[in-house]
Design goal:
With 434 residues, the chain is an alpha+beta fold. Helix content is 55%, strand content 9%. It has three domains: 66 residues, no CATH class; 230 residues, no CATH class; 88 residues, no CATH class.
Length: 434
Amino acid sequence: MLQTLFHIPPSLFGAPGLIIWLLLCGLWLGVVAIRDRENLKTEFWATLPILVVGCVATMFLLPNLAKEGIDPNDPLGDPVNRGLAIRGYGVMLMSAVLAGMSIVFYRCRKIGYPTEHIFRLAIWMIVCGMLGARLFFVIQNHEQFFRPEDNLFETAKRVFDMVGGGLVVYGSMIGALLAAAFVVWKWKLPVWLTSDLIAPGMAIGLAIGRIGCLLNGCCWGGVCDVPLPAIQFPAGSPPYMQQLQSGQLLGIKTEPVPNESYYYRVIDLGDGVGKEIGLTEGETISINALDAERMRYLVGTPKAELANLEIVGERIGRSVVPVSKLKQRSRGVHPTQIYSSINALVLCLFLWFYWHVRRNDGEVMALMLILYPISRFVLELIRNDEAGQFGTELTISQWVSLITIACGIGLFAYVRMFGKRSAIPAAVTNEVSR
């Protein structure tokens, strides 16, 4: 797990950061001058808007994005300004977008499909995909965002604050496909041909994006008690905190209390902390710890002796347990992020080569809508970050998978029976040549 790759220090904001940005732009123009002096003027005017935006962002935007964080050398002390955090998840998300666009552009050039339409399509899909991913997460976890005691401004701030994560793949897929449908309709592009072109790009984006999930520590699997590959996450990570709050890291076996977040019913006391503090089987408990970032820099250090966990129970009242008793890593869990990444990569390769044997346009996208949900449904069986919905053990992602599979099968049957292989419209080709 590597949630933060590095921090841009606050000292680089303002004049020093501005100088670095100007030097980078000057270096770029110098390379252009050496390579193609005749187009230097054109490149300068093309670069000027980027230069201005970069200057404004460096002077005014970046300082506001920098947030206070825990001092690694003093996790129990006051927060300090560590600068602007460059997140591993965000970097992988951008890499996923670039990789997806690259392979789609490559195939477009091969068949003569105008890439400017695909670029326009990509922009819409990226923006709407991000909005859809966030909206899906907010709806799925609405109790975290819409609190009676908060005003409209506080609620909106919480909804749009994505620094700590909070995106759902299915929401991204739904948002991106709706955007694609709008662009295809607006510019009268061939529907099924265009959908087949973008399907492998969406799959490779999923493959790289799941590596971002691994770096972020989200989308983790359940505890792996069988002889299969497992991964242990560090203190403060989402899997670690979930295992801590449920008592697993303290050797206590529990089950969630329905409709009560962070409350668990004791099933087995184990041989450790549970017996020491006088817990009884069947008792409902809640374990309160320091925030995740403090735990990350505290567990395993001498200062852990200075902090405690608080266990609240029906019979024991309030008991404290020293943080020094905690292990530095979580119990081994199924590496579902890696499984998902490999699955999406294999799916991308399959869709890429199926393009050559498809009978009618639309089959590639239909297979995407069938195969990915099947694998996602199965992977949800070993994930441990979502609860069952609608009175069943099926998670919301599994419900959406079933609906998507049905839609994919219907689409595949339709394009096989009534579809055709479309040629690129002459009007689009002529527009490109102009």
